Amino acid sequence: LDGQPHYDIQKKIDHEIRMRDGACKLLAACSQRDQALEAAKSLQTCSTRIMAYMSELQRMKEAQVMQKVTRRSSDAGPMDDRLPCKGKVAISDLRIPLMWKDTEYFKNKGELHRCAVFCLLQLGGEIFDTDMVIVDRTLTDICFDNTIVFNNASPVFELRVELYSCCSEDDYSAGSTPRKLASKLSSSLGRSAGKKLRAAMEPGSCSPISNGGATPLLLPVPSVPGPKYHLLAHTTLSLSHVQDSFRTHDLTISGNEECSYWLPLYGSMCCRLAAQPHCMTQQMMSGCLKVKQLGGDTQSWTKVYAVLKGTSLFCYHRQEDVEANVEPAFTIGINKETRIRASEKDPQSKVQNICISNQYGGEEVTHTLTTDSREDTHRWMEAFWQHFYDMSQWKQCCDDLMKIELPSPRKPAPATPKQGSLYHEMAPLATPSCEGLLLQDNAVSAEIRALLSSYYNDR
């Protein structure tokens, strides 16, 4: 498979493999619980991204093969090449309610069960992770404050939300035990055998290996000592779930109460899912038009610079007014109820008029437009048909422009309380940054610190 898209995806795969290798090494060397939980989270995220990118690469190869077959087919009929525009999809205010037993929540009895959780969100080839949250019985909801925006969604998108959980009560201070054991065994077995043993037990063995100059073979993630996240619940959201308000969606729960990472979920998830199709935010067509004045005679025309965007055709006196953000002279509504047709202006010129009809208060109002040539008329008519097609595919997202907040900068990982419940931890704890956590661990080499710092900066 040739071309820039293949090269870009391969670069992403290579990058995530390096990040996964660094996360494996960091996880094996961690001596603090917070570091181990964050490193395990990075490992899970990298592995998910690698699988998604490889699936995308496979789809591209299959599409290329199908395209070649279609071209060679002699009986292939005409194909409709009209495609809907892309758009932004944003998910925010993610809340997952919990259902603790009365004795646990109200009476604060029983063993304090604490888990570290985070969400992975995937839409196509884009995968994002939320911040990690520590959950115990004093919380009624798992809250993720991240606003996550997918920039290249189609109207048939599927947004998969996965909730991962890990019991945070285990002791992760012995992360370097296998390495110490390997050193002791190597001294007993001799230099040659010991070197092979250390290489086999090296936690960075998840790196790709050579495949005779071809694409590196992707080895499975090795069993690294330390915490492991497990899929606790998931759901898939689509265009039908988009609404400019807070809504509840069903969750599919995995696991059972016997699992150490188990949390008592209600089986639902609340969030705000919004979408902004490009046809609502970008100029889909622009150029000079002449608009017949309503109620005027047949020669009463006004020359304007028109911009097709969202649910309106904006008409300006000059093109410079658009760049200067000057209010348009007037607007013509363009929505799902609008009717547009082309009609002959006169037999001599052969230039067509464009008639745009809308209903206002039960009365039909028609604006008549004309261009300087039949070619310009054709381009405008094609732009209108494409615009209507985009609106028909994005449906409710084209009724009004939904608001999407800009993604907030990632917060440093919160420190895990040493004892007691989160409810009783009134004094705020010092919250070191992810990079600070890396620098605190002297067991991690400078190479790993640089690699993992790059990973967090990229996020």
UniProtKB/TrEMBL annotation:
Keywords noted in UniProt: Coiled coil
SUPFAM superfamilies given in the database record: PH domain-like
Pfam families given in the database record: Anillin, PH
GTP-binding in keyword set: no
UniProt GO BP: actomyosin contractile ring assembly; mitotic cytokinesis; septin ring organization; signal transduction
Keyword rRNA-binding included in the entry's annotation: no
Domain spans labelled PH: 282-389
SMART domains linked: Hr1, PH
Domain of life: Eukaryota
REM-1 domain: residues covered: 1-66
Family annotation (InterPro entries): AHD, Cytokinesis/Rho-signaling, HR1_rho-bd, PH-like_dom_sf, PH_domain
GO cellular component terms, A-Z: actomyosin contractile ring
Protein name (record): Rhotekin
